[in-house]
Amino acid sequence: MNPLVQVAVKSPVYGVFDYRWKAASPIIAGTRVTVPFGRRQVIGVVVAAIEHSDVPSGKLRAVHKVHDEKPVLPEDLLKLLQWASRYYHYPLGEVLGSALPVLLRKGHEAVIAERDYYRWVPHEAESGLSRAAPVQQRLLEYLREHDGRPVAVDALRAISPGWRKSMEPLLERGWVACDTAIEVPRNHAAETGPALSDEQAVAVQAVQQTLGSFTSFLLRGVTGSGKTEVYLRCIEEAGKRGLQSLVLVPEISLTPQLMSRFERRISGCLVSLHSGLNDNERLQNWLCAAEGHADVVIGTRSSILAALPRLGLIIIDEEHDGSLKQQDGFRYHARDLALMRARDRQCPVVLGTATPSFETINNVKTGRFRELRLTQRAGNAIPPIMNLLDIRRRKLIEGMSDRLLDAIRDHLDKDGQALVFINRRGFAPTLLCNDCGAAADCRRCDAHMTVHVRQNRLRCHHCGSERPLPAVCDSCGSAELDRVGYGTERITDALQAEFPDVEIARIDRDSTRRKGALEKQLDKATTGQARILVGTQMLAKGHHFPKLTLVCILDADRGLFGTDFRSLEHMAQLTVQVAGRAGRETRQGTVLIQTRNPDNPMLQTLVREGYGAFADIAMADRRLADLPPFSFMALVRAEASAGQEAHAFLQQVSEVLLASRAGRLEVMGPAPAPMERLGGRYRAQLLLQSDRRSVLNDSLARLCTQIDQLPGARKCRWSIDVDPVDLF
Ligand code: ADP
Ligand code: ZN
Ligand code: ZN
Predict the structure, then answer these.
(1) Are 635 and 687 in contact (CB under 8 A)?
(2) Which ligand is nearest to the CA of 197?
(3) Atom 12 (ligand 1): residue with closest C-alpha?
(4) Is residue 126 located within the same domain as residue 98?
(5) Atom of ligand 1 nearest to the CA of 225
(6) Based on the domain organization, do 337 and 206 belong to the same domain?
(7) 450 in a domain, yes or no?
(8) I want to staple 299 with a disulfide (CB 3.0 to 4.6 A). Which of 273, 293, 327, 676 is the partner?
(9) Ligand 1 pocket mutation, candidates 198, 228, 545, criterion most atoms within 8 A of CB
(10) Which ligand ends up closest to the CA of 201?
């Protein structure tokens, strides 16, 4: 009788599948195998050896091929992923799949590529080196400057594309040697950091003391207060103790400045994991981390799932950022996985932000997290002055008040730089007919199309459909079409008309789509060549614009009346983050917030007393309303091509949940999603809430055993979102 093994296969069906093991090699959890699955052969991951299977032995099929000698998912990671599969109620095979680079999922070998490296060999006089061979001379010179340290091929190719031919005689003479080694990037940091402020020193020491044990820290400090400097010191210390550091950041491709700062400061092997890498680069960097070569891994959300055998420190920068939560498929929150992982690995986790999420503030208040504060800006920078600009009954020029434009003029006159923030790209969010009142709507969503004048098109920002900008109304044929509302394109045009001699950089997803465009725009912003910056939240994250003195926020009111219970929290975070771009060097910054609700107590608290006071009041409201973080939520979403099917299916789900609930569980709905029709499909949702996490979790677990058999399930696509960030 062959031994039995459980294999997780990427499949929407819950659970794992049993197979017979005929291979001579031992069964090792976390290794990849090819197994027959239905009529196909698929790659799965061994979860465990088992004694007994419920599948009759005649029906058990055999593992076809074993891919790895050692696990691609080591034990600790496998355990974390199994927990995550249960917590988020997402099939284990899918969860394990999302932890692996695409090439490993496809069966690519899990070995780091080998590369050639060249180095200078000490030798006597270089007799016979022809003057007529300048490339040889340059190569030799370059390698000599590196003093025997190995140089990778890329650098040599940069010297001359035909370098390889010129290298041959140098190798023959023994002046240069070539070694083949695995591809592990090595970084030689050239800079040391500044002397720490007292507060920074306290923070660094607190974290360093907990290396080797589990503690969660909130490192709270405004933009520019020196949080990154604290991370760097902690990482250095972890490195000295032979520990790997994992740094999660919201979006690396948006912040090229951050990566180069790490490179200038951290010696050793530094790798990044993010969406800008191609499949092979991603695999190489991932393996570099998994084999323990990488000392520091900097990555976006999914790098919390990277294999890290020497993991000793986790840092999450901008822990409040929405991008830490995966919004489709395996809907995990990287911050929550980080906490689980740190506890399991007995290492500290540092959450850094100026505007902590309410979840994190609550964790500090209940004593689960330790708070470290940086109250001063590093160097001499002083915090910006924030002012509300009442725009009721004021003359507006393209949505901007005369006082706002005067302020921009004033700052430009004094050699400052201004940032105008409007979180909407395109020219105008609506195209409205003046005669019949019809709006140009998306044909597949319950949404207006956005006018994009630069491309002469209408675009739906929800499903991506687009069509040419019409000359006449679709409904009545009138040519009286009004562009209503403002987006970055329109604001840029208006400002250009107002300040014709000034260069303006627009930074949003449209203006930065082409490769290199973002770097170019950021460069103009940093050097001050562009004196006015117009942009969306892309501008809010992590950038350092030394000349910036004025920040104008045009549409803060939108967040005051959002439909989601988190709208207000997100508005405040975004406002503070954008405001933080102002006055990062010696000149004090000014922030102007246009509003039609200058008496709104939340807005006033935020502006006068800051984010902390704001959060206290807003969180008291959450507590009264029994909303997270004071209760726990999950959302069951469904969508179908016909109107009533999603609703009917969720009605069945609701009945199952209510019949089997194991404690106080509120089931609200089904209700249509806030945008009911999206991409041509009808969507509905069911909101579950409980004051006990275990009740929510147990109810969902029970639901998952039955949900596929519900009569409506075949007509719908459904998903479960535990701890949803957005309720749509
Ligand atoms: P944050 O991550 O909180 O935005 P940074 O660490 O990027 O802050 O620091 C902001 C700026 O101040 C950077 O230019 C950094 O080099 C500088 N800085 C940080 N700490 C110090 C310090 N102790 N002394 C002088 N300059 C510092
Ligand atoms: Zn019309
Ligand atoms: Zn649409």
Answers:
(1) yes
(2) 1
(3) 378
(4) no
(5) 3
(6) yes
(7) no
(8) 273
(9) 228
(10) 1
Q: Are residues 364 and 321 in the same domain?
A: yes
Question: What CATH code is carried by the domain that includes residue 240?
Answer: 3.40.50.300
Query: What's the per-residue H, E or C state across 330-377?
Result: CCCEHHHHHHHHHHHHCCCEEEEECCCCHHHHHHHHCCCEEEEEECCC
pLDDT digits (tens, 9 = 90+) for 51-67: 898 888 888 999 999 99
Co-location of 207 and 345 in the same domain? yes
Name 421's bridge partners: 535, 553
Instruction: Write out the residue range of the structural domain in which residue 578 sits.
Output: 385-424+486-621
Which residues approach ligand 1 with their CB closer than 6 A? 194-197, 200, 221, 223-229, 378-379
- Note the pTM of the prediction, 2 decimals: 0.89
271 domain-assigned: no
Cα–Cα dist 219/373, whole Å: 6
Residue 65 three-state SS: strand
Please give the tally of structural domains in the chain: 5
Does one domain contain both 530 and 589?
A: yes
User: From the CA of 472, which ligand is nearest?
Assistant: 2
What CATH number does residue 712 fall under?
Answer: 3.30.70.600
Residue 653 and residue 604 in one domain: no
pLDDT in tens, 225-276: 899 999 999 999 999 999 999 999 987 665 667 778 888 898 888 998 988 7
Helix 693-706 with 75-88: angle, nearest 10 deg: 80
Same-domain check for residues 302 and 362: yes
Which tens digit of pLDDT belongs to each residue from 9-59? 987 776 789 999 988 889 999 999 999 998 999 999 999 999 898 888 888
Q: Do 703 and 657 have their domain in common?
A: yes
Nearest residue CA, atom 15 of ligand 1?
A: 226
CA of 224 to the centre of ligand 1 (A): 6
**429 Cα to the center of ligand 2, angstroms:** 17
Give the distance (Å) from ligand 2 centre to CA of residue 455: 23
∠314-316-322 over CA atoms, to 5°?
145
